[in-house]
Amino acid sequence: MVVVVMEFRIDRRNGVPAFQQIVQQTKQALRLGVLVPGDRLPTAKVVAEVSAVNPNTTLKAYRELEREGLVEPRPGQGTFVRRTLARPSAGTDSPLYGELVAWMSRAAGAGLEQEDVAALVASAMEKQYATGTATAATTTGSTGE
């Protein structure tokens, strides 16, 4: 059994409920391979102490993740990752991640703020995935350098 040290960052100003932020951050960790099947999530008590959220908030998030088949509670043991969302080409050790980090560095060097970058990324994602599926034709070619 592996206990993953994962701290949830709860932003109370963004309007997204805390339980939903926990769900989103857990899914992100599952997509990036930070969490893998068999890993134990932090207890609701630990999350409450570290993130200053009510333990019931964490339990609600974990129930949502359980409904989606991503985690499973084991009475007396904790909540464990059941399946991953990671894809080999989406991990932090993939070439795509390296390209994205390099692009982010160029964006910051050009004076863009985090909100500017988020807006550009959101716009590009909407355009790329507008039909529900990505097309290889629009992802090949220039890397923007």
UniProtKB/TrEMBL annotation:
Instruction: Provide a Gene Ontology MF annotation, just one.
Output: DNA-binding transcription factor activity
Q: Which keywords belong to this entry?
A: DNA-binding, Transcription, Transcription regulation
List the InterPro entries hit by this protein, alphabetically: Tscrpt_reg_HTH_GntR, WH-like_DNA-bd_sf, WH_DNA-bd_sf
Pfam families in the record = GntR
Task: Outline the extent of the HTH gntR-type domain.
Answer: 16-84
Write down the PROSITE patterns for this protein, in alphabetical order: HTH_GNTR (PS50949)
Q: What SMART domains does this protein map onto?
A: HTH_GNTR
Listed name of the protein: GntR family transcriptional regulator
The organism that produces this protein has a lineage beginning with: Bacteria, Bacillati, Actinomycetota, Actinomycetes, Kitasatosporales
